[in-house]
Design goal:
alpha+beta, 406 residues
Length: 406
């Protein structure tokens, strides 16, 4: 296994870490029930919590040893119930600050949503990664993409009916899927989303099969997002977004609407119908969700960006067909960076535009060889990755910001 595959395997290990810790804790509890002294049980609890137990707590437990010398091992059901309660008390007391340790004042910094976003002073083209083909690190009509916590890039390689994973320099790591209609197979996948809120999951808009599939990073087995109930039948879904609590948002392009699914895969909100009205959409293609639960929809047919609140009520709209700054022509995808700047691939104008969350135009950028910008993602370091569906590669840009003062 090379280093890149080993790196991806580490993500699977991280996903299983919590289950492993639970197993180790159960083993500690089992060991605790075998000892005869409560004070020794406290040591086991201390090891399980990986902290020191205050001296006063140990003295209390030694007193309990004197009062209840035959408390362990547990002999009766009544003893079992009492013993379990005491064990929980020991664990609680054991996982406290060591005696004599003085808690230092904690400086609470405001979150990103409360801090002033640093102005963007420039965005520069850096490089191009990938090329046309069917091999590793090659693409045919690359579309949506996403970046995980380790900086790996997941690309919907639509023309090759697969999802590719590469590092930020373009080195191939792994791929998922092939052409087909069974689970784990794709027909022209168009978008990718990653969820880390509740569990590690990869979501794929399997557009040609009119469905969304997901897998976790433990078994890598794909499942449909939802059962085929009449009210959630999808028609060419093209965009996916993840909410602040792990909700899944799907752009149901053929039905000119977007749908919110809760973490159990149950649809809870559906908005939109065909048209050009304030609550209508025309071939929407993508969306993103901010930290407040606001939803931003790319209304491609109407050349607009539409903003909805967390309840699905329309609250703002901007754009309009044209090539001036702030206008759009066949926009395709949208993403938010860590400062809530919105990046929109303005495909018909062969550029990317940046907006604030209230629709104020900030800047635009492009590259001489950029032909059909489609998917877009921004890394934590300010690198912008843009798939070029016509050139079959990924253009990379760097955002430069004015240093902010807290």
């Amino acid at each position: 296994m090379n280093n890149r595959r080993r790196s991806f395997s580490n993500l699977k290990c991280n996903a299983a870490k919590r289950a492993c810790e639970k197993r180790k804790f159960r083993e500690k509890v089992a060991e605790c029930t075998k000892v005869k002294k409560v004070s020794k049980c406290a040591k086991v609890a201390r090891d399980a919590c990986d902290v020191q137990i205050p001296l006063s707590t140990l003295q209390t437990l030694r007193t309990l040893d004197t009062l209840y010398p035959t408390f362990f091992p547990l002999r009766t059901l009544g003893h079992f119930t009492d013993g379990l309660c005491l064990l929980l008390l020991v664990l609680y007391l054991g996982c406290t600050l060591p005696e004599g340790e003085i808690a230092q004042p904690i400086e609470i910094l405001p979150s990103n949503r409360e801090r002033h976003a640093p102005p963007i002073v420039g965005i520069r083209y850096i490089e191009t990664i990938g090329r046309t083909g069917q091999g590793a690190g090659e693409f045919r009509t690359p579309l949506g993409l996403a970046i995980d916590e380790e900086g790996r890039i997941y690309i919907a390689d639509a023309g090759n009916n697969r999802v590719q994973v590469i590092d930020d320099t373009g080195n191939y790591i792994i791929e998922f899927g092939s052409r087909g209609w069974q689970t784990g197979e794709f027909d022209h996948p168009t978008d990718i989303a990653l969820s880390f809120q509740r569990r590690y999951r990869l979501y794929v808009a399997d557009t040609g099969n009119n469905r969304v599939q997901y897998c976790n990073f433990v078994d890598l087995i794909f499942y449909p997002l939802s059962e085929s109930a009449d009210d959630v039948l999808l028609d060419r879904p093209e965009g996916i977004g993840i909410g602040r609590n792990g909700e899944v948002y799907v752009v149901d392009t053929g039905n000119h609407r977007w749908i919110e699914f809760n973490v159990a895969g149950v649809p809870v909100v559906a908005r939109g119908s065909f048209g050009s009205g304030s609550e209508q959409l025309w071939n929407p293609t993508d969306l993103d969700v901010d930290a407040h639960g606001n939803v931003y929809i790319v209304d491609t047919g109407n050349h607009l960006i539409k903003k909805y609140d967390f309840s699905g009520n329309p609250i703002d709209v901007w754009g309009g067909e044209g090539d001036a700054l702030g206008q759009l022509r066949e926009p395709k995808c949208i993403t938010l960076d860590e400062w809530n700047y919105l990046y929109v691939t303005d495909s018909g104008n062969r550029r990317i535009q940046v907006f604030t969350s209230d629709g104020r135009s900030i800047t635009e950028f492009s590259a001489p060889a950029l032909q059909e910008p489609a998917g877009i993602a921004v890394s934590k370091t300010g690198r912008v990755f843009v798939t070029d569906a016509e050139a079959n590669d990924i253009k990379v840009f760097q955002v430069f910001r004015k240093k902010s003062e807290l």
